[in-house]
Amino acid sequence: MTNLNQLPIDLPIPEDDGATAHLKGMRLPNVSLLATNGLSIDIGAIQGWLVIYCYPMTGQPNVALPDGWDQIPGARGCTPQSCSFRDHYQELQNLGAEVIGLSVQTTEYQKEMVERLHLPFPVVSDANYQFQKALNMPTFVAAGMTLLKRVTLIAHNGVIKAVHYPIFPSDSDPAWVINYLQTQQA
């Protein structure tokens, strides 16, 4: 069975296709998304620093990943990315940032992952693609599912200040975010 916590060494590296070039400077949309903590979160209303890491889909224990998943550049690594944000969460909070995970899986699907990985921050469901459509976020199709490409947005008072894309390896994402936030506060 696949080890979801470990990245294979031979993953294809995603290339920058320009699909996020329009995002910097945009306002986050005022869309309310159901979160794993039971709240409905209006993404655009959050003040201060906000880190939103968008990911395709977390795997589940004893459930096979979609056929060809490891061959899709940037698809594999959602669990290591989430764990890395968990492990750096206190440091991010010390830098004044809130963290939200975002995917198109249902809240029920996400709750299993949040509980299994002991994530201290909410994950929101964009199952109706409101966030994706409002920002024209890049997607791909796997096993008949339209999924978000891995993108991390750093916003301040609702305005996107930085975009991390493509992200590889996925668990390096929080270090990039921390570096960005430190340069803003220097």
Highlighted features:
186 residues, alpha/beta, 23% strand
Unreliable stretches: none
How far apart are the first and last residues' alpha carbons, in Å? 45 Å
Number of helices: 5
What Rg, in angstroms, do the CA atoms define?
15 Å
Secondary-structure class: alpha/beta
Description:
With 186 residues, the protein is α/β, with parallel strands linked by helices. It contains 5 helices and 9 strands; from the N terminus they run βββααβαβαββββα. The strands form 3 sheets. It has a 5-stranded mixed β-sheet with strand order 5-4-3-8-9. The longest helix has 13 residues. The chain starts with 31 loop residues before the first strand and ends with a helix.
Describe how the helices and strands are arranged.
Blueprint: E1 32-34, E2 40-42, E3 49-54, H1 78-87, H2 89-94, E4 97-103, H3 107-117, E5 123-125, H4 130-135, E6 139-142, E7 145-148, E8 151-156, E9 159-164, H5 173-185
Parallel strand pairs: 3-4, 4-5
Antiparallel strand pairs: 1-2, 3-8, 6-7, 8-9
What's this model, at a glance?
The chain has five helices and nine strands. It has 186 residues and is an alpha/beta fold.
